[in-house]
Each structure stands twice: as C-alpha cells, then as structure tokens.
Model the fold of this input.
Amino acid sequence: MTVTIVTAVPPLKAVIWSRNGQTLFGSRYSDGNTNTPSLSINNITASDDGKPFIRMSGNNVAGIGSTVNLEGLITSKPNIRNTIWKRAYQNTSVVIDFTNGSKFGRSGTLFHPILTITNLQRADEGLYLCAASHDFSEGVGKISVSIGVVPLVSREETDYQGTVGNDIQLNCSYDSNPQAMFLYWLKNGTRINLDLQREKYTKSNVSYPDLTIYNVQLNDTGIYVCCVGNVIGVGCSAYIKLLIKDTKEETSIDLYPVIIGTVAGLIIFVLACICFIKVEGNCNENRDSDHVYKTLSIYNAIYDYSVTTDARKSSHCYEDIDILNKDV
Done:
C-alpha cells in the first residue's frame, strides 16, 4: 500500500500507520519514509482485514412519548454478512427482541440499518449498539438515547432602569437538552424582529442570548421575556421589567419642592407685614381716643361753675374748648 503526498507544509517529520485506532508496529510492517510514505504487510492473514466501520446518527434526544429513529451507516471490505441491534446494561449488552413490535422495530438495509423506538419513556434511556460483522471481525457503533426537555430559561435581574439616550443590556441564560436551536425576545407580549431593527437591538442568538438596546427612549419601557427553543419545545424566562427615565423631567420635578417652599415663604411674609401694620394702626387710634377722653374729663372736673353766672360760665367754656382742641 502506497500513499502519495501532494504537498506538506511544514515538511513531514514522521509517518505512522494505524489500524482500528491501534498503531501498527513490528517486523510484519514497514512504513516507507517521509518522501514516499508506504505500508507493507508481511505474511498476511485473515485478521489483517479491517473491521466494519459504523457511523451512528438519529434523533437520540427526544421528549417523552416521542418516536426515536437510530441509524447506522456501515462501511466494510469485505462486505458484512449481518447486523445486530443491542442495548447496553452496565458491563454487558443484550440483543434487542423485535418480536414485540409495539416498542422496538427495525428497517433499512444491510449497510444502512434503522432501529425505531416507539413511545419513548424514561426506562428506554441508555446506550444502544449496532454490531456489523463479516467472516473475520466485527465492528460496533454506539449511540445514547435520553429524554429531552424544553429549555430552562433564567433571568439575572428582575428590574432594570435606564436613562434616555443611553444603552442598556438585559441578561438571559438557559440550560437546554437537547441542544438549543433558536432564541427570541418578547416586548409586552410581542416578538421583537431583531433582523429588521439591527440599529436598535443586538442580534441575540443561542450563542449570545443577552439583549442590548441602543439609545433607549421612554417608549422602550415595558415587560421583556427571553425565549429559547429546541426540538422538544420552547421555554421562556420570567418577566423582566425595564423602566426608562428622562433626566430633564427629573430635574424639573426635583425643583418643585424648592419653588413651592419659596412661594409659601413669601406669602407668609406678606401676611405677617399686613397684620403688623393693622395692629399698629389700632393701637394709635386707641391712644388718641383715650387722650381726648381724659382731657375732656379734666375739663369737666375743673370748670364746674355751679356758683358762677351763666354768662361767665359760657364765656370761659368757649375759651377752654379752644385750648383743648389745640392740645388734642
């Protein structure tokens, strides 16, 4: 057997041959050199024939009650003679019984065998084997079957707050078995079209589930939900609340107590001045009235001329009244 190397960068340093994952060495084998790699087998026997190679595939992670199809694709020379499906239990394996067709079924061809598991349950989870053999050796392909669930989606924060004009990131994480296939975000119950709004949002996906909102505005306030889907179904996070505030409005609102306090202080000051003026006026009026009353009383006490003539009493009365008027 000779292998032709068209080009090698960097240059080859060694040539190693292997068979079924095992390195070949010993006097029976010669492997040429780095310029002309080759393999020579001396005293060939039936055991030198290669094992059948089986590549396994299928929907091996599914939900309870699902139908699972496991497929083997076999390559072999010489051709295989038969295939057997087995199920592994701890350190041994048991051939699957197909007489009861309600649980297991088989189909396909000799080189492409298919195992069908109907109404998948927890008891059906485990390792399944596809064995293919010819006259000299047997090859085995392995595949595990497990019950899958919808993704478990979590939020890191319950409430977010942002300011108009800034960017904000809403965090999302998930655990999915089988592998997640798609992810999307909801705002107020409506799916956000991230492809049509790339200037507004990051392109969230299963590799980067977080959602970044650029240049947030007041209308970005709302309830957001992160949803992830796999072949089993779709799982969504709990509500994520986002509140956007405007710094201009906050500044105006913060000044309200100052303005109200200033106006109230001015009103109290004006009312105090008015009351002071009114009280001062009343005091002056009372003082003047009291002076007049006392002066007239003195006059009446001094000038009681009961023993004088009417003419003198009258004349003297007029003169004293003039004096009193001047004093008042």
